Each structure stands twice: as structure tokens, then as C-alpha cells.
Automatic annotation (TrEMBL):
Naturally occurring in which organism (per UniProt): Crenichthys baileyi (White River springfish)
GO cellular component entries: membrane
Compositionally biased residues, Basic and acidic residues: 38-49, 381-390
PROSITE patterns: DAGK
Region span, Disordered: 1-53, 379-399
UniProt name for this protein: DAGKc domain-containing protein
């Protein structure tokens, strides 16, 4: 029998006579030990102690944490460990410390065994391993707590209780549909999934059904057909284009299933986003960082948040669902970039930006918008969710539309999942309220003024403090181009024409729109409506992202 096992079993024997023996022993402990107990209580802190006392202890036992034996307590919400002989420096000079892990952060528990090389099963029990996440700012990292005790009976009873407690957490997926776009950005999506995500899913016993997409629209067609009720969630490994396609697919599928062609229906399954693209704006917005491990841990732990989406329609016909749209500069710039697909994404973007700036021209259009309602609460405060669910956007018809007619260099509509955290609107507010989007309309201006505005776009201040820039918090927008000259005519003088197939193509003069980084050509008026909490994403509410994200549209 190994030294470790013998020691642990010895300890267990001591503790095996458990509480009774401990309680019996208590009157015998000397003053010195009482003082130590007193110190321990102080160290745990008053608040923690009160919380702990209000929760009943489910399990108590002795485990080795590190090199020393600890008294380990398990309640419904936490696992705490306290050194049996506290505050004493160990042989290596370090001090044994008490610790705590919240069960909401634990995603797996395993029995540790000592096995001979090559053996797949059996082996002597060594104790438990608890896999949990720890926070570093917005970043979530994987960590493991090792609890050593060589008694198989003791270890298994702890394992069973912990397993049962972990299954009680709602929102944690058991089976997910995964889409990987192998062509995203540097073509690293498959590696990112295999190296950073799959091991965590395996550890948390999440089963997966993986589709590696082979073309644009592949995930949409799979989502239209597949049996959704088998899955607990959908995972997208890719960039913003892939995310947009899947968000659109999830809402469209909900609409088809509910046989509701007119009214958008909330998506049934949550979507997890593993960033593997070139911009990853949505991922940054719901995770606060661009990090596949953080994203995977949010999925594993079932952190969910509902977010707004916009519906885009033209001539009464639905076009798609998405988070953002750009008309004018953003649309034209993307249309130019799409013609140079053979270039690397950064070169393509740079080329399109420079070329569109060189040919800068305003769009003559009629812009109408409905201001976001202020009645439920302050415009940029949090709304009452129950009221919000009752109050469908369609009931806002009594509100009057504001209409402006004129020349615009750029018009953008962004709902909160794509808002650059650095964006501050003119009134000083950042993210719009749920159920509203930000409308940023850039009027006609000189090229140099427009460039100044663009340069400040991803900085934290002053990007809208130009007389030619208007910002509004809106619940619906209509844009009707008045010019008869669409983009194809303008572009016909360009060298090459290798445009990828747009999602819809209209007859006559059409205008390029950038909807979530995807090129969509539309000839007529476009109607955009914000739908509160239309889709659920794995992640958490983020006030400010750690990393600065740049807008995918320019
Ligand atoms: N195998 C494939 N080949 C080509 N395109 C694909 C393939 N699979 C998916 N797509 C499409 O590629 C488009 C762009 O993908 P994605 O957004 O993941 O990458 P990206 O453009 O590099 O990243 P970002 O959007 O963050 O800049 C999406 O519209 C997606 O539908």
C-alpha cells in the first residue's frame, strides 16, 4: 500500500469515527486549541461565516488538500476546506490556508485513481478532483482542486453527492450541436475547437454533434432541417459572419416551427460563440474578452443571457435577422472588399476602406425612426423584463415616426451585442437599453471630417461629437434610398467583377447593405425593427470588454 494511501486511511480512521468521536474529543482539547479555533473563525470572515451557518452542511470529512489534512465541508452552494492544524508553516515554508470553491463554478467532479500504465479502468482510489473555473478579470480559467483520501467508500459518497448537486444547476447543456467554420480568419477554427474547447466539453460530459461547414449557408440549411429537441444548445466556432448566420438560423427556425411568418419568435436554443474570426465583435460583447476558453466555460457552466436582435425586411418581405446594419459607407466598403476575396482579410479591408474613401459620396435618402420608448423606465436604465415581454414592439404603432430627408455618408443601426464597448453616444450613455438599438447617422461632410470621425470610431470619446453626426436610441428604422443609382452601376468601372452571391438580389438599382458583416443587396426601402431578447447567448452581461474590438463594418 502506498505511503499516501496509508496516511490518508489513517486520517480517515481518525475521522471515520467521525463527528461523534470529534465531539467526544472536544471537551479534552486544551486552551491553546480553542484559541486556534477562534483565529480560524476570524480568518473565515464574518459574512462568510454567517452565510455558511445559514446553509446546512451536507457532508463533512477529512481530505488532504496539498500536503496537509483539511476539514472539508460541503453545503448546497460551496465546498470549504480548513487546515486541521491551521496557520502552521509546512515543511516547505508555506502556510496552509483555508479555501472555498462555489459549486456554481464547478463543472466536473472525477474520482482519482492510481493506475498502472496502459490500464483504462480500475486502480486504487486516491480521492477526488473538482474541475472549476476561476476568474481573472473578464477571463475565465480552468482550475482543479485535488481532494485526497484513499477510502473508496468515503470518496464515492462525496462523489455521488457532488454529482447530484452539479446536475441540479439549470442551463448547463448535456448535448450540443457544434458548427465549425474551417475557413474563418486564419483557418484555425478546427484547432481552436480541438485544443481549447473539446477537452472542456469532454470533462463536463457534454456530448457533441459536430458539423464542419463547407460553404456559406451550410449551417443555415442544417439548422432548418435538424431535430432541435435533441439538443440543449448550439455552438458556433467562427467569426461574426458565422455567428450572424446561426443567429439568423435559430430565429428563423423558431418562426418556422411556430408557423408565424410575420412575427419573430424567440429562438428555442441558446447559442454559444467560440471566437475564431477576424473581428469577433459579438463574442467580445457577451464574454468581455476574445478568448475561446472563457467562451467554452460560459457554455459549460450554463451562463445565459438574452439579447436583442433586429429583423430586416423590404417591401414587406423578410430579409433576415441580425444585430447590426450599415448603409452607405459601410455597405459600399464591404461590397468592394467582397470583390477581392482572394486577398487576406486585413488587406481586403484596408483596400476597400481606402478605395471607398477615395470615392466617398453621400446617399440621398429618407431616414425615419421610432425613438425607443422611455415609459417603462429611464431610457438607458434596465427595464422590467416581464413588462417587456408583454409589450411587443408592434404595439408601439401609436408613437410617431421622425423623418429626415437628405444626404448621408453612412447610417448604422446597432443592437447591444455588437456595440463597441467604447462607443459612447452623444448623451454620454454606452450600451442602449434592451429593446433599443443605436442609430448613428453621419450626414454629408468633407472627406477629411469623415476620416476624423472614423478614426475616433473605436476610441472612447468624442466619436460622435461632430455637427454632422446624429445619434438616437431607436426601436425601429426605415431607410428609403431616393437615388436611382445603385451600387452596381457605380462599380461597373472597376477592374474585376467576382462578387460572391448576395443573400437577396433585386432587380434594378440595388444598394449594398452590410448586415452583420454580410453583403446584402436591396433595391427598396429597408425596414428594421428591434426585438427585445429574441435570442439567448451563452455569456454574461458585460459593461466593458477588456479588449478593444473594432467594428467589422469598416
Ligand atoms: N467552408 C466554408 N468556406 C467558405 N465560407 C464558409 C465556409 N463555412 C462557412 N462559411 C461562411 O464564411 C463566412 C465568414 O465566416 P466567419 O465570419 O466565420 O469568418 P471571418 O470572416 O474570418 O470572421 P469575421 O466575420 O469575424 O471577420 C460566413 O458567412 C460563413 O457562412
Amino acid at each position: 500500500m502506498s505511503e499516501l494511501e496509508t496516511e490518508a486511511q489513517g486520517e480517515l480512521r481518525d475521522s471515520g469515527k467521525k463527528k461523534k468521536k470529534k465531539e467526544k474529543e472536544k471537551p479534552r482539547v486544551g486552551e491553546e486549541e480553542e484559541e486556534v479555533e477562534e483565529n480560524k473563525r476570524e480568518r473565515e470572515g464574518k459574512v462568510e461565516k454567517e452565510e455558511e451557518q445559514s446553509e446546512s452542511v451536507l457532508m463533512r470529512g477529512i481530505f488532504k488538500v496539498g500536503k496537509k489534512s483539511h476539514d472539508v465541508l460541503l453545503t448546497r452552494t460551496r465546498l470549504t476546506w480548513t487546515p486541521i492544524i491551521p496557520e502552521s508553516p509546512t515543511g516547505d515554508g508555506s502556510v496552509q490556508q483555508a479555501g472555498v470553491v462555489l459549486l456554481q463554478d464547478v463543472f466536473a467532479v472525477k474520482v482519482k485513481r492510481r493506475r498502472a500504465a496502459g490500464r483504462q479502468s480500475g486502480g486504487a482510489v486516491l480521492g477526488l478532483a473538482l474541475f472549476h473555473c476561476k476568474r481573472r478579470g473578464r477571463r475565465l480559467e480552468e482550475d482543479t482542486l485535488h481532494l485526497h483520501n484513499a477510502s473508496a467508500e468515503h470518496t464515492h459518497s462525496w462523489y455521488n453527492t457532488l454529482k447530484e448537486l452539479l446536475t441540479g444547476f439549470s442551463g448547463r447543456p448535456r448535448y450540443v450541436k457544434v458548427f465549425i467554420n474551417p475557413s474563418s480568419h486564419k483557418k484555425e477554427a478546427v484547432h481552436i475547437y480541438r485544443d481549447s474547447v473539446a477537452p472542456l466539453f469532454k470533462m463536463a460530459d457534454i456530448r457533441t454533434d459536430i458539423t464542419v461547414t463547407d460553404r456559406k449557408g451550410h449551417s443555415l440549411s442544417v439548422m432548418k432541417e435538424c431535430k432541435l429537441d435533441e439538443y440543449d444548445g448550439v455552438v458556433c466556432v467562427g467569426g461574426d459572419g458565422s455567428v450572424a448566420e446561426l443567429c439568423h438560423a435559430l430565429v428563423l427556425r423558431a418562426q418556422l416551427d411556430a408557423n408565424s411568418p410575420e412575427k419573430p419568435v424567440r429562438a428555442v436554443l441558446p447559442l454559444g460563440i467560440i471566437p475564431a474570426g477576424s473581428t469577433d465583435v459579438v463574442s467580445c460583447s457577451v464574454h468581455g474578452v476574445r478568448d475561446p476558453v472563457t467562451a467554452a466555460l460560459h457554455i459549460v457552466l450554463g451562463h445565459l443571457q438574452q439579447v436583442d436582435m433586429c429583423s430586416f425586411s423590404s417591401n414587406g418581405q423578410p430579409v433576415r435577422f441580425g444585430f447590426s446594419a450599415m448603409f452607405g459607407f459601410g455597405g459600399r466598403s464591404l461590397a468592394r472588399a467582397e470583390k477581392k476575396r482572394w486577398m487576406s482579410s486585413s488587406r481586403r479591408r484596408e483596400y476597400a476602406l481606402v478605395k471607398t474613401l477615395a470615392r466617398l459620396r453621400p446617399e440621398d435618402c429618407q431616414l425615419s425612426f421610432l425613438s425607443a420608448k422611455t415609459s417603462s423606465s429611464s431610457l438607458f436604465g434596465h427595464r422590467d423584463q416581464s413588462k417587456e415581454q408583454e409589450q411587443e414592439p408592434e404595439s408601439e404603432v401609436e408613437e410617431s415616426w421622425m423623418t429626415n430627408q437628405g444626404l448621408y455618408l453612412s447610417i448604422s443601426i446597432m443592437s447591444s451585442p455588437v456595440l463597441n464597448p467604447n462607443l459612447a453616444l452623444k448623451d454620454g450613455s454606452k450600451k442602449p437599453d434592451n429593446g433599443s438599438a443605436s442609430l448613428i447617422a453621419v450626414g454629408n461632410a468633407s472627406r477629411s471630417e469623415f476620416i476624423k470621425h472614423l478614426k475616433r470610431y473605436s476610441s472612447s470619446s468624442g466619436q460622435f461629437s461632430f455637427p454632422f453626426v446624429e445619434t438616437h436610441s431607436v426601436s425601429a428604422v426605415k431607410i428609403r434610398p431616393r437615388s436611382l443609382i445603385g451600387w452596381s452601376e457605380e462599380e461597373s468601372d472597376e477592374e474585376e467583377y467576382s462578387r460572391s452571391t448576395p443573400i437577396i438580389q433585386s432587380e434594378g438599382a440595388s444598394f449594398p447593405w452590410n448586415i452583420d458583416g454580410e453583403l446584402v443587396e436591396i433595391a427598396n426601402e429597408v425596414f428594421i425593427r428591434v426585438h427585445p431578447r429574441l435570442i439567448t447567448l451563452y455569456g454574461e452581461e458585460v459593461d466593458e470588454a477588456e479588449s478593444t474590438v473594432s467594428c467589422s463594418c469598416i
